[in-house]
Design goal:
The protein is an alpha/beta fold and 320 residues long. It contains eleven helices and eleven strands. α5 crosses α6. Bound molecules: 6-O-phosphono-beta-D-fructofuranose.
């Protein structure tokens, strides 16, 4: 009988489980079988596919990571890999797949759709780096974790009159850095989207606030800018203020999802499963104007991200 399937691909993100749960329950509520594909597209090459029931997604909505495991799959990203994945789907009676992940996963979803297996993408990544969607599942949790961690750094930096240079995740995208930076009152925020000048954007800003009595400082740096060890040294040399570098790293990827990630994950998962049930494919579920809508995958992949320069400007205007 007819079946749909769900997989998570690329870097994991808190809230992916909520989306998986919603796909499974919505599919079953429509009366179709639902399969869980393990380790991203790899599961379609290795045959790691399990039948899901209502209870296989119990007790996961509050859990980080993904119960389906995830992977980045170079083997799948070849014409032969895509063919093999499509034939696995056909042999299992799967005619539609919900793919939860980032841009790379969406390209996989488009390729698999071209091979005859209808796919629907859901944006799941902590980076918020998907042009077609205002929001990606995991972003809120990652930022809240980053804020908690920086608050801890603040305690010790304040006690020692030091400067904390903190690297947050985001290889090509400064969104985590921007919002975390605002939330912790960072003196400077460095993002890959905006070039910076060491003297003007860091040292002069620190000196200015120092004149009005500030004694400890937080500089938030996106992973895509990087170089926090060197930056901390340079700041210490230029200002005489003791500086320490911290790379938050993968702690930002784990932990229990926030309300927002659970709710957005649930809604997107459910909408995706219903679209598959209705025979639709080659779509991505996105947030636009605060609403959950669907778009053509290729159209979505061709969109260009716009960095929120206004918010970036506000951040620096008020961190004085
Ligand atoms: O895309 C999510 C992300 O955490 C990025 O912020 C980061 O650059 C990358 O994944 C890290 O990848 P990995 O988990 O392979 O180290």
């Amino acid at each position: 009988s007819k079946a749909i399937a769900v997989l998570t691909s690329g870097g994991d993100a808190p809230g992916m489980n909520a989306a998986v749960r919603a796909v499974v329950r919505t599919g079953l509520s429509h009366g179709v079988r639902v399969m869980g594909i393990q380790r991203g597209f790899n599961g379609l090459l290795s045959g790691e596919v399990v039948e899901m029931n209502l209870r296989s997604v119990s007790d996961i909505i509050h859990r980080g990571g993904t119960i389906l495991y995830t992977a980045r799959s170079p083997e799948f990203n070849t014409p032969a890999g895509v063919q093999q994945a499509a034939s696995t789907c056909r042999s299992l009676g799967i005619d539609g797949v919900v793919v939860i992940g980032g841009d790379g996963s969406f390209r996989g979803a488009r390729d698999l759709t071209e091979s005859g297996i209808r796919c629907i993408g859901i944006p799941g990544t902590i980076d918020n780096d998907i042009a077609s969607s205002e929001y990606t599942i995991g972003f809120d949790t990652a930022m809240n974790t980053a804020v908690q961690m920086v608050d801890r750094l603040r305690d010790t930096m304040e006690s020692h009159d030091r400067c904390s240079v903190v690297q947050v995740m985001g290889r090509r995208c400064g969104d985590i850095a921007l919002q975390t930076g605002i939330a912790v009152g960072a003196t400077s925020i460095l993002v890959p989207e905006v070039p910076y000048d060491f003297q003007k954007d860091i040292i002069e800003r620190m000196r200015f606030t120092q004149k009005t009595g500030k004694k400890h400082f937080i500089i938030i740096v996106a992973e895509g800018v990087g170089g926090v060890e060197k930056l901390a040294q340079d700041i210490q040399e230029a200002t005489g203020i003791e500086s320490r570098a911290t790379i938050l790293g993968h702690v930002q990827r784990g932990g229990s999802p926030t309300l927002r990630d659970r709710v957005v994950g649930s809604e997107m998962g459910s909408v995706a499963a219903t679209l598959l049930y209705k025979g639709k494919g080659n779509r991505v579920i996105v947030m636009q104007g605060g609403k959950i809508v669907d778009l053509d995958i290729s159209e979505a992949l061709n969109m260009k991200r716009v960095f929120d320069k206004n918010l970036y400007e506000i951040a620096h205007r008020i961190s004085i």
